[in-house]
Amino acid sequence: VCRPDEAVDPRVQIELERLNAATDDINKLEVDLDEARASFRQLLYESSIRIDALGKKLGNCVEKARPYYEARITAKEALQETQMAAVRFERANSAHSAAKEMVYLAEEGLCTEGRTFDHAWQEMLNHATMRVNESELERTLSEAEHRRTSRSYQQAEVIVQQLQKELKRSIAKSRPYFEMKAQFNQLLEEQKKKVKQLEIKVSSAKASYAEALHNLEQISDEIHRIRKNHSEMGLGARSAGVGADSPLTPVVLSPDSRNTSATVSSSTNPDTDRWTDSVGSSDSETQEEYLRLPDKLGSSSSPIVPQNVHKDESEQSEYLSLTSLSDNKVKSTSFQYLKNSEEFTAKNSPSSQIQSSQPYQLLNKN
């Protein structure tokens, strides 16, 4: 189906007109052919009835005079063959004379100009000689054919003359019968020729119809192939979507901006799995913080008094009191911190509770 924005190929209109004209011709010629065949059958039927009726009326003279008329038909056919053979002989004789004249001119040109070894003249002479030989062979064959047909015609004519003398009376009586038969035969031949001509015209019209139909199929295939190529080209380049009036330039994000956007997205849209991981990580950080706690306190907060330090009793007692005080504070602070951490971990992870209970027991032992 042609789209509204596409123009119809002018070849389609031409081939359609040819197709319609051929269809009309075929229909008309087939009707004429049927009528001609019907006329031929009707004429053959009428001729048979009338000739048979006349033959019955004339009696035996028709059968007696039949060899004479058959001999006349044979003589007439022999005469036609003789005439055709004579035409072929005359044509071959003329070609032979022209070829001999060409050979004579070629030889005279070679001798006059002294170009005995000229290639063009040699080629012309060879061609003329070949034509002489061919025309001579054709003249010989046509002459023999003319002689044969002439003898046949002479023999047929002799037979006609003999029968005419022998059957003179029967020939005179049966003349109306054979004249009527000759007339009907002539009419039948004319009608037969008309039928053959109409058959040739019908065949030609059908060939024109088939050619126009084939051309239309080729044009249709070509149009479909062009549309397919255009559709494939159109699908190759995608257009902007609905609402995309102005295409935006793509923004390339740096790693920092990607991390920032990921942080914002995680904060705005919290995920349960991520929150669970963060709880587990806080427990591990609590354990690490507890293990690093003695290093943060330093040697001044240690409850063990170094032996190599010799001070007076007042300074030593003050030092011990401060140490015990700081130790109690650290223990209470660590105990409270770890206790809170343990309670928080126990609510979320059993494994974390087991890991955090061991440091608590060690701290109580200390």
Total DSSP helices: 9
Q: Give the number of domains.
A: 2
Overall geometry comes to flat
Task: Please provide the ordered H/E string of secondary-structure elements.
Answer: HHHHHHHHH
Q: Summarize model confidence as the mean pLDDT.
A: 73
Biggest sheet architecture:
none
What is the count of β-strands?
A: 0
* C-alpha-based Rg, rounded: 64 Å
Q: Which stretches of 5+ consecutive residues score pLDDT under 50?
A: 246-255, 257-281, 300-335, 350-366
- As a percent range, the share of helical residues equals over 70%
Intertermini distance: 97 Å
Question: How much strand content do the residues show?
Answer: under 5%
Protein structure class: mainly alpha
Any chance you could write out the topology, listing elements then pairs?
Blueprint: H1 10-58, H2 61-113, H3 119-166, H4 168-236, H5 255-268, H6 272-291, H7 293-297, H8 313-346, H9 350-365
